[in-house]
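Reading a protein record of the kind used here takes only a little practice. These numbers are not coordinates but entries in a learned vocabulary of local backbone shapes. Here is one such record, which you should read through line by line.
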Amino acid sequence: MPVSELRLIKRCAEFLGQRQVRKVPADARGIYTLLKYRPKLKTYDVVYVGMAGRSTNGGIVRRLKKHAKQKPRLWTHFSIFEVWDNIREEEIRELEGILRHIYRWDTRAHNINQQRSFKRLTAVRNDNLELWK
């Protein structure tokens, strides 16, 4: 039996243009990012981090299509990170929460991605590293 490269992520696709949204499999679930391409700098800025699971009927592709209908278009590209079938919805939410927690103070991240903090993460926070033994 082959061994997986990653425990949580089954496969990913990065820096795809909006036209590629329709090619995303309907049952793909996991984490996605909306990106804004900056041609002069040849870089991608993170606009939004989101998640999609089975409960969202249509998975990641449904969420991306919903974002694509929003005006003005704040993003030009997207990346998707599909999780394995045995990853629970709560685990996907935890991944999303951690990523959004990281970006909450980033001045370049767009305001649609604002989040105060990931409460479950703050419950395990301990900045006194001497107590980590």
Observations:
- Strands lie at 9-17, 30-38, 43-52, 77-83.
